[in-house]
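Write out this protein's structure.
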Amino acid sequence: MEKFEINIFGCGAALPTPRRLSSAQIVNIREKLFMLDCAEGTQMALRRSHLSFSHLQAIFLTHLHGDHTFGLLGMLSTFGLLGRIQDLHIYGPKDLQRIFQPQIDYFCADSPYKIFLHEIDTRTPQTIYEDRSVCISTLPLAHRVPCCGYLFSEKPTPRHIRRDMIDFYHIPISQINNIKAGMDWIDEDGTLIPNNRLTTPPDPVRSYAYCTDTTYRPQLAELLQGVTCLYHEATFTQEHALLAKKTYHSTAAQAAQIALDAHARQLVIGHFSSRYKSEDLLLQEAQQIFPQTLLAEDGMRITL
C-alpha cells in the first residue's frame, strides 16, 4: 500500500510542558507532507522526525490560539534560511491574514519562496485542497474562536496487475495502465479476457480526521462515517465535564462517543490538560466506550 502516516509532534493542551509540546502533526501521504497546526517547538520536532522540510506541501491551522500557531513564524523563517524555493500555502480561519501577513512581511521579506495565506469559512464543510492522491476538507468545530478540523480522504488507487496473466496473454506494456483502470483484454484469437482475471482489487481507501479544539458536537459523527482514524481532543475526564463545556473542550468519553457514532476504525485522543500527571484515566474512560482507542504521544507515528 502507498504511504499514509500520521506523525504526532505535540499533543498537549494550552501550554508546552517537559512531557508534551502543544498541538502539531504531519500527515505523510506518498511522501507529500501536510502540517496540522504549528505550536511552539514544532520545527525542532520536525527535525527530530527526519522528515524532509522540502516535502511540506501546505499547513492547515485549526484556529488562531497561540498553542496552535506560536511555532509558525520561526519555522517559516527557517525554511527561508535553508533555501526553500517551493511556494507554501497556509490555510486557516478568519483573521489569518490580519494576524500573520504583517509578520511574514517583516520577518520573511527576503525569503526565496512565496507564502500564500488562505482564509477559510469554518462554519460549513468544504473541500480546500485536492491533488491526484488526496482530498482535504474542513470539519466545522465549536470553540471560543472560529475553528475547524480537517478530513484527509485518500483517492482510490488503480487495480493491481497480475504479472503472470500479463505474460500469459502477451499483453503489451502500453496497455497495462488501461487494464489497471478496469479495461478488459481481447487476445489475438478474439477471446475477451475479463479484467478481474487480469487484476486484483485495489487497496482500500483510507481517511484521517483531525478534530481539535472543540466542545462535544454529536453532529460531527455524520461527517466522519467510516473514517479510518480519528484524532479527537480529550482535554478533560468526565469529572471535569462542566469545565470542558465552559471552555469549549471535550472529555475523553465524548471523544469516544463521536468515534463510536462515526463507526471509526480507530480513535486517537490528545490535547491533554496539564492538570493530569498521567493520561491513563483519559484512556480508560475512552476505551470503556470505544475500545479501539490509542493515547497520543509526542513522537508517535501511526501507519494507516
